[in-house]
Amino acid sequence: MFLLVDCGYGTISELFGSVELPTDGSKWVAVVQRGEISFEEKINFCYMAGASGVVIYNNEPGSEVPFNVGSGDAATSWVRSARSWSAMISAKS
User: Which H or E element spans position 79?
Assistant: First the structure.
């Protein structure tokens, strides 16, 4: 089981400042909003902070987002629209 952690835009200042990350060794997945910095930076910063995975959701309804983002060792992210992400969270409750 993984915890889902809202990490804002996935910036360094959020991940190592304002975001409350698990401190008990739990596995967690970073949920980050598209925008502010590149997808590759988001993924790399989240992994640096200890995330087991990263979900990037779209902040612009109706716009398409490429699935294959980043390069090198950056993991592939799963991008959903804000509306469908909200529906997924509601369904889990």
Answer: strand 78-81
Could you tell me the strand order of the sheet in which 28-33 lies? 3-6, 28-33, 53-58, 78-81
Give the pLDDT confidence of 35-61 residue by residue, as tens digits. 889 888 998 999 999 998 888 887 666
Query: What's the predicted TM-score (pTM) here?
Result: 0.70
Q: How far apart are CA 8 and CA 18, in angstroms?
A: 9
Report the distance separating Cα 73 and Cα 9, nearest Å. Answer: 20
Count the residues in the chain: 93
| Dihedral (Cα; 67, 9, 13, 73), 10-degree rounding | -10
Structure tokens at 41: 């930076």
Please give the Cα distance from 93 to 74 (Å, whole number). Answer: 30
